[in-house]
Structures are given as structure tokens and as C-alpha cells.
Amino acid sequence: MITFNTFKPTEGTPIYQQILLYVKRGAVAGTIRDGDELPSRRVLSALLGINPNTVQKAFRLLEDEELITSQTGAKSYMTLSAAKIERLREDLLREDIRGIAGALRQMGIDKEEALRLLSENWEESES
Amino acid sequence: MITFNTFKPTEGTPIYQQILLYVKRGAVAGTIRDGDELPSRRVLSALLGINPNTVQKAFRLLEDEELITSQTGAKSYMTLSAAKIERLREDLLREDIRGIAGALRQMGIDKEEALRLLSENWEESES
DNA sequence: CAAACTGTACTAGTCGTATAATACAGTCAA
DNA sequence: TTGACTGTATTATACGACTAGTACAGTTTG
């Protein structure tokens, strides 16, 4: 069962997108695996303190990407494969890395300082 | 005059927030300096193809942070100081770095691989 | 079977972002 | 002074994200 116990939604980004990211990153990290059971829409929404429709939207999008399967009445499960995980890993990494590199460069930070900053702040980042 | 010629709004984030970031990062980079003249609300909105109210909202927030001054009828100017720039630099860097570090760690990337990825993708990031 | 769960669907409302069209007052240069 | 520009303010509209409540159909388990 995927617990979502480390999931903490933040402001500024739609919650359903944060749920998508959480699951995808978990899949890449290996903490979320093929066949894993997802909490029900109602249970998860109560757990996170958000609306069931928001969870439903996130899960529907996960299903659109064929990362989970759902059928009415039964629970939902992860449907991962090595190929899917590899695709996720590449997509997420590229997006994250390029975003930060662009931001730092726009602030006049050079490559060496960027590497130093990332190294120094690595431990202090949120999980 | 601040030209905004490298400003390209993207989807997913409110435009007025992107304008804020653009100006702040420019100030940190030194490409935007104290006393620099800002384009008028009407001119900039026409230039960017967005609504004047959106620009006004961004400029009002910049004024709230005392990074620009505005008075009706006259043009608006940057009001920066070494202390303000230093504060901006720390705020922006911390936010950016911690964001990327947290995302990478959540995907199971260790420190060494993160540094390698940033190093390899540095040149390919958008300006 | 029956109860309790599951996913799914629908309507209605709030809030923030963004657009659109005006209007008014102050500044500045010809 | 006059006119063209500035910043500022207002109202209305549209859309997406999110909340709230309800309903229905299918599955699972006792």
C-alpha cells in the first residue's frame, strides 16, 4: 500500500499535479513498485485533507499515462514496467535539471558556483 | 530601460509571478540596476501580448517589496541597494537550490549523481 | 445475500488568474 | 498651455483549480 506519509502539498502548484509528481518520483526512486496498491480516493482525500475530486483528477491522469489501473468497485494498482520507469526518470530529470540550471544562469551564477551551492545545500533539502 | 527582450512566459505559473522572478533575477545578475527605467504598463503589456492589469499587478507587488517606485503620471524606476540585492540573492538561491535538491533526492538520486547531472546539463539549459 | 467498501459521475459554489473596456488624475515635453 | 504620455482604479467576464454534497454502479468480504 502506498502510504503518502511523506506527501506535503505546498502552495502555488495545483495539488493534483503534486500528487502526480509524488507518484512518478516514487516510481523512479523504487519506493513505489509495480502492483502496489493505492489508497482509495476517499481515504486518501481524508488523509490529505483535500477534496475527493482532486484526488480523482490526479488518479485519472495517472491512468491516462497508464501508470495505474482502475475499475469501478475494486482498488487501484500501480502498473509499472522497466520501460515506463526509464521514461519517467528521463522526463523528470530533464525537466528538473534544466529548470534549475536556467534559473541560476539567469541570476549570473556560473557553473562552478552552482555545483558548490548544490553540494552545500544537499543535506538541508526537504525529503 | 529594462527591455524584457529575453522574457518568455511559460504555462503553469502565473504570468505576474514570472515577471517578478524575471526582475529579481535580473537584479541579482546585475543586468538590472538601481535607477533603471521600467517600461510603462501599457507598453510592456503590448510588448508581451498580455493584459495591462497583469503587468500592473506584477509592478504593484514589486513596489510592495520596495524594489521599484511608481507615482502616477511619471515613469517607474528600480530602487535597489546592495542590501536588497543580497536579500534577493539569498532568497532566490535558497528556494531554487532546495527545490531541485528535494526533487532529485525524492527520485533516489544521490549527491554525486546530482552534481554530475547538473554539470552535464549546464550548457543545455535555457537562458 | 447483505453490508461496506470501491470507482465514477454530476451539479453548484468559491477563489485566483487573466482578459477587456473604460475612466480619471498627475507628469512631462513640444 | 496643450496633448501625449504616465500610474491608478473600477467593473464585468471567462476560465481553471478546488471545495462540497450527492448519487449510482460495481466489487469484495463476512
What is the gist of this entry?
The first copy, chain A, is mainly alpha-helical.
Notable traits:
elongated, 2 strands, two-stranded antiparallel sheet, homodimer, DNA-binding, mainly alpha, 127 residues
From the alpha carbons, calculate the radius of gyration of chain A and give it in angstroms: 17 Å
**Treating each run of at least 4 consecutive H or I residues as one helix, how many helices of chain A?**
5
Described by its quaternary structure, the protein is homodimer
* Share of helical residues of chain A: 55-70%
Compressed to H and E, one letter per element, the order of chain A equals: HHHEEHH
For the biggest sheet of chain A, the summary is: 2 strands, antiparallel
Could you list the spans of chain A in which at least 5 consecutive residues all have pLDDT below 50?
Answer: none
What percent of residues of chain A are in strands? under 5%
Large-scale geometry of chain A:
elongated
- Backbone structural class of chain A: mainly alpha
- Give the end-to-end Cα distance of chain A, rounded to a whole number of Å: 20 Å
- Give the largest interface: A-B, 40 and 39 residues
Strand runs of chain A, count? 2
Q: Quote the average pLDDT of chain A.
A: 93
Strands of the widest sheet of chain A, in order across it, are 1-2
Describe this structure in words.
Two copies of one chain form a homodimer. Chain A is mainly alpha-helical. Helices cover about 55% and strands about 5% of the residues of chain A. The first copy, chain A, is built from five helices and two strands; from the N terminus they run αααββαα. Chain A has helices at about 15-30, 40-50, 50-65, 80-105, 110-120, and strands at about 70, 75-80. A two-stranded antiparallel sheet of chain A has the order 1-2. In chain A, strand 1 (about 70) and strand 2 (about 75-80) form a beta hairpin. In chain A, helix 1 crosses helix 4. The longest helix of chain A is centred in the last third of the chain and has 25 residues, at about 80-105. Chain A is elongated and about 55 Å long. Chain A starts with 14 loop residues before the first helix and ends in a 6-residue tail after the last helix. The interface of A and B includes residues 13, 22, 104, 118 and 119 of A. The first copy, chain A, binds a DNA duplex (30 and 30 nucleotides) through helix 3.
